[in-house]
Specification:
Elements (H helix, E strand, L loop, with lengths): L2 H5 L17 E2 L12 E10 L2 E8 L5 E8 L5 H12 L10 E6 L3 E7 L6 H5 L7 H20 L12 E3 L5 E3 L27 H4 L7 H16 L10 H7 L12 H10 L25 H6 L12
Antiparallel strand pairs: 1-5, 2-3, 3-4, 4-6, 5-6, 7-8
Helix pairs in contact: 4-6, 6-8
């Protein structure tokens, strides 16, 4: 079956070769376009609420790609076009997953992205979730660069969590999954839709008080807290109501935290958006990042956060 065939098959019936062949309509004109229906499908690598993700190979260039297949019965055109738009920005930021092509069929949508082979941040956290200070800071600096790029280009990610921070083959990060993102968000715009994953959602999003890019700052603060402290700062084991109630509590800041660590965590996890550290402004100037050469980070010259041992 071709990728277009798969996009037209309900998730429970994927793999049924009797499904009709329907042509795909290309939506993205790229400088070096790929032919969606001339890809070699290798294996399943993921599954989500809107469909599934397959590993594929371009038969001409041999480039490995991740194909996101979404059913129209589970995903609307706005979600698809938003993800395509944000992924299109990936060519301008090394910390954002890049688009390689997309297509629409009568029953589904297909998004071809660069394949990121190193797994996600959550899978590398393990049970303790905690990293050493050097590794944590390296992860944090690359996440700041990626989130800042998105926010400054009018994008609110909306679902930042360790599962959506991928690690490439050289140990650097790539932010992914923009299905819940908002685009074309102006400096004074306020959003009200409840989006995100329990455990990472900012208080103003939960309370439907209206939010902006500072919601991403809070989600980043939760991830940073997990890497430094080794647990969630708020309840993440029960229902949305449990999490909502836990947001009223002050996170446990262990006495062993350094002054710099305490400063960055308190600033990012501030319940009031107006008092929260904004990734779009002076976050890089906080003492936690004083040792960082941001030019090296942005250019890829800085040491990678993660190291893959040779097998």
């Amino acid at each position: 079956m071709t990728p277009s065939d798969i996009a037209d098959v309900p998730a429970q019936d994927l793999g049924d070769s009797r499904s009709p062949i329907l042509p795909a309509r290309e939506l993205v004109n790229m400088e070096n376009p790929i032919d969606i229906d001339s890809l070699d499908l290798i294996t399943d690598i993921g599954k989500g609420s809107n469909g599934k993700v397959l590993l594929a190979s371009d038969l001409v260039s041999k480039e490995l790609l991740a194909l996101k297949i979404m059913e129209k019965s589970r995903c609307d055109e706005n979600t698809f076009s938003t993800e395509v738009k944000v992924l299109s920005m990936g060519a301008d930021c090394r910390f954002i997953t890049s688009l390689r092509g997309s297509a629409e069929t009568p029953q589904g949508y297909i998004i071809a992205m660069e394949y990121i082979p190193g797994g996600d941040l959550f899978s590398h956290m393990g049970e303790s979730m905690q990293f050493d200070t050097v590794t944590t800071r390296r992860f944090a600096t690359e996440m700041v660069c990626g989130i800042q790029f998105l926010n400054e280009h009018g994008v609110i990610h909306g679902d930042l969590k360790p599962h959506n921070i991928l690690i490439d083959g050289t140990g650097h990060i790539k932010i992914c999954d923009f299905g819940l993102s908002a685009v074309n968000v102006g400096e004074d715009d306020v959003l009200e839709e409840l989006v995100g994953t329990m455990g990472y959602i900012a208080p103003e999003v939960m309370d439907r008080e209206g939010y902006n890019h500072l919601a991403d700052s809070f989600s980043f603060g939760v991830i940073l807290y997990m890497m430094i402290v080794g647990k969630h700062p708020f309840d993440n084991s029960g229902t949305m109501d449990d999490y909502h109630e836990s947001l009223d509590n002050i996170p446990d800041f262990p006495p062993w935290l350094s002054i710099d660590e305490l400063d960055i965590l308190e600033g990012l996890l501030c319940k009031t958006p107006s008092g929260r550290y904004a990734i779009t402004s002076f976050i890089r100037e906080r003492p936690f990042f004083h040792s960082i050469n941001w030019s090296d980070v942005e250019s890829g010259r800085a040491e990678a956060p993660f190291y893959f041992e040779d097998e």
